[in-house]
């Protein structure tokens, strides 16, 4: 009875656990955090004061460091490192097999790498800067986005992040065995396209509110 | 009428598993209803390339010649498929033939497909029926389910799905869609179901199910139209439940 067969315990099954964890973390908590982050930023459309009020509320949450570490930093770190390993073990062949899902497979990997570069820079420019005494507020973002280069960089980075989340949501549903039938997978394709469009509009409105 | 019509082939060849591949061109007289295998046989009768040089006959693998054994799979004009059912009339010329490089090349177009048979052993793709005494008849299979399972049983281990999969390559140990779908087939069988968890645990190991990246090339490429991605998604669900059972324990066997 003590013998624990297979599953999550056996050493040889790390890959199964890692893959499933990678898929789960992308949605919970990282995906949820992304949606929350985009929604809170949307206060910028109501002007500098409205954004600063929201940013200060988020920034002054109790146990902020714990929340950030557990909900954001650790999951993203795992997702990013294991994701890079996944991305670079694939031998992409969308040129030869130009099917829709194969293109999504390629774009998921490309957007993942772009997102990682963007997030690294974004954290450096805002959170690390904050740790050195800068104040995260409307002026900070308006200052960053006043450079056309940075505006385009943020635009690409944010759209890439949203795509990676929306398409990742689709494959999360497949990977955990929630959508099995082809029809359910087609329906969630349309659903995740909707998620991509809606979040992109939210993000675009926010970015434009800073310029 | 077709006397002057010719068919042109560009074949990627290689003399031994370790030697460098090279291309050789062949041109032969057109005959109605030719397929790639009949053309290769014609070249074998007179192995002379377009430069007029005598060369070795091309090596390839084939057996049934009716697209049920899977042995003659090769990459034809960029896509992996069976050469017996590749009709010359339906192919763009020059016809390019290459081996399926996902597998070790033995010679020319012949590859070693052992990894798939090893994978079938690994995932226990059979139904144990032997006992020390007569176990009697097994449980009956509903006819509707039998018809459904028949579609999964059409797999001929041809290797096309592995060739098309971006995650089956030399950097990864992914076993590919073919053995996974067989797990679903044998787990669906009323007697095979008795060893369900053993097969699920086998595909939860390294190089197993979790390596699928959902490019879905396999289901697009399968010559038998096997719903490979549905099998994979169904197994994702089964292994999710199995993983919870293994971790938390279960009152069910």
**Count of separate DSSP helical elements of chain A:** 8
Fraction in beta strands of chain B: 5-15%
* Helix content class of chain B: 25-40%
As residue ranges, the low-confidence spans of chain A are 1-11
CATH class of the largest domain in chain B: Mainly Alpha
Question: How many E-type strands of chain B?
Answer: 7
What name does CATH use for the topology of the largest domain in chain B? Fumarate Reductase Iron-sulfur Protein, Chain B, domain 2
Which structural class matches the secondary elements of chain A?
mainly alpha
CATH class of chain A: Mainly Alpha
Query: What's the tally of helices of chain B?
Result: 8
Structural class determined from secondary elements of chain B: alpha+beta
Summarize the structure.
The complex is a heterodimer of chains A (211) and B (253). Chain A contains eight helices and no strands.
List its traits.
heterodimer; A: 211 residues; mainly alpha; 3 helical TM bundles of succinate and fumarate reductases; B: 253 residues; alpha+beta; Ubiquitin-like (UB roll); Fumarate Reductase Iron-sulfur Protein, Chain B, domain 2; 2 domains; five-stranded mixed sheet; two-stranded antiparallel sheet; 8 helices
Could you please describe the fold and organization of this structure?
The complex is a heterodimer of chains A (211) and B (253). Chain A is mainly α and 211 residues long. Chain A has one domain (14-209): 3 helical TM bundles of succinate and fumarate reductases (Up-down Bundle), CATH 1.20.1300.10. Chain A has helices at residues 14-27, 30-41, 48-59, 64-89, 100-131, 138-145, 148-175, 182-209. In chain A, helix 1 (14-27) crosses helix 4, helix 1 crosses helix 7 and helix 5 (100-131) packs across helix 7 (148-175). The N and C termini of chain A lie far apart (65 Å). In chain A, 30% of the residues are buried. Residues 1-11 of chain A have low confidence and may be disordered. Chain B is an alpha+beta fold. Chain B folds into two domains: 6-111, Ubiquitin-like (UB roll), CATH 3.10.20; 114-248, Alpha-helical ferredoxin (Fumarate Reductase Iron-sulfur Protein, Chain B, domain 2), CATH 1.10.1060. Chain B is built from eight helices and seven strands, in the order E-E-H-E-E-E-E-E-H-H-H-H-H-H-H. Chain B has helices spanning 36-45, 114-122, 143-153, 160-164, 177-188, 196-203, 217-221, 228-248, and strands spanning 6-13, 22-29, 73-76, 79-82, 95-98, 105-107, 110-111. In chain B, the strands form two sheets. A five-stranded mixed β-sheet of chain B has the order 2-1-5-3-4. In chain B, strands 6-7 form a two-stranded antiparallel ribbon. The longest helix of chain B has 21 residues, at 228-248. The radius of gyration of chain B is 22 Å and the shape is elongated. Classes of the chains: A mainly alpha (211), B alpha+beta (253). Chain A binds chain B through residues 4-10, 12-16, 18-20, 86, 88-93, 96-97, 99, 101-102, 104-105, 170-171, 174-182, 185, and chain B through 78-79, 164, 166-167, 169, 171-172, 197, 200-201, 204-217, 220-221, 227, 229-230, 232-240, 242-243, 245-247.
